[in-house]
């Protein structure tokens, strides 16, 4: 919702930037980065997670597993609940990965195919 947008200060921005670079960074390192106590940093992280961060997931290089990724990005006019229903229906298939996005596109569908050689 647009009404839930909050102003981010320099601490929140720094924390988000560091987490985007490395989501596994320790609380100790984050605290040092913003020059604040661990309790202050932990409070800020909890606040960001509760109000801003919707989902954290690993970024896997599937090419190292022998797959070629094909991504399809979809823009819809559906609201969040309709998109989630749509995604749940498609998740019943096991041939691809699907997720809801926030931004220009609403949904991403990733198809993974094994490498093949054309002779």
Structure description:
The protein has 2 domains: 2-51, Arc Repressor Mutant, subunit A; 62-114, no CATH class. Helix 1 (10-21) crosses helix 3 (38-51) and helix 2 crosses helix 3. The protein is of the alpha+beta class and 119 residues long. It has a 3-stranded antiparallel beta sheet. The longest helix has 14 residues, at 38-51. It has 4 helices and 3 strands; from the N terminus they run H-H-H-E-H-E-E. 38% of the residues lie in helices and 18% in strands. A hairpin with a 6-residue loop joins strand 2 and strand 3. The N and C termini lie far apart (53 Å).
Summarize the main sheet: 3 strands, antiparallel
Return residue spans where pLDDT drops below 50 for at least 5 consecutive residues: none
Helix- and strand-based class? alpha+beta
| Form type | globular
Overall number of domains: 2
Q: Helical segment tally?
A: 4
End-to-end distance: 53 Å
Helix amount: 25-40%
Question: Average pLDDT, to the nearest integer?
Answer: 84
Number of strands: 3
H-E order: HHHEHEE
